[in-house]
Amino acid sequence: MRVIVPEENLVQLALACVVALSASTLGGLSGFGTGLILPVFLVPLVGIANVIPVMAVGMLINNGSRVVAFWRDIDWLHARRMLLLGLPACVAGAYGYTLLSAKWIAVLLGTFLLLSVPMRRVLRRAQLQFSAATEVGAGAVFGFVNGGVTGAGVILISILMSVGLAGSSLVATDAVVSIIMGAAKVMLFGSLSALDLRLALLGLLVGLFTAPGAFIARALLRRIPAGVHAGFMELVVVVGAIVLLSRAWA
């Protein structure tokens, strides 16, 4: 089947691919960011209702590249704890997403992006210490949120930091949890016709442009502080959230 992207969207698609590479590199340095920045540029291209399915496909490749790049650093114990209840909760959250109208999807996504900035700062300063049981419960909360929005990696990073992960191990474990949950989302969206061939190919294209970012990040990880880009990323996320919310109520 031949899939044609309208000519007026080619510039937006090219921009999304460039942003995908940049966001993936930044995300590889800190473990978050790709899923928060990309939706801002994808909404005009695919529509609000299709952002999460397209991002689910794209993030599979993004996180898959991180898994390959940081394979030896994955902490499987914490990954299993996060997935125990987190995986079924993610499927439930993704199913709930498919029941929403485009307006409420915009409200949900815009609100989450807007709250992600102070939430990241609060979680970073909280210095939480989780037990094994608390980690499993936190995995369920993250899974449900992750099923219905994009960019929830800020929550996962905070949980993994609270159990002592840092550096390459933090990024690697975040990636393996995210890719397993992402695969479950893609299968659900596909089975419910929320993800057709055109959207899947767009997600694949964007995802391919995120893949090199993990390897660039690995080369830069020892040279650039993880938080050096945070201010710029937060500005983009806030502006994108305001745009989404304004569209929802227009």
UniProtKB/TrEMBL annotation:
Pfam families: TauE (PF01925). The chain crosses the membrane at residues 37-61, 104-123, 135-159, 165-187, 199-220, 226-245. It comes from the Bacteria. Keywords: Cell membrane, Membrane, Transmembrane, Transmembrane helix, Transport. The keyword Zinc-finger does not apply. The keyword Transmembrane helix applies. It is found in: Cell membrane. One of its GO terms (cellular component) is plasma membrane. It is a multi-pass membrane protein. Belongs to the 4-toluene sulfonate uptake permease (TSUP) (TC 2.A.102) family. PANTHER family: MEMBRANE TRANSPORTER PROTEIN YDHB-RELATED, TRANSMEMBRANE PROTEIN YFCA. This is Probable membrane transporter protein. It comes from Povalibacter uvarum. The lineage of its organism: Bacteria, Pseudomonadati, Pseudomonadota, Gammaproteobacteria, Steroidobacterales.
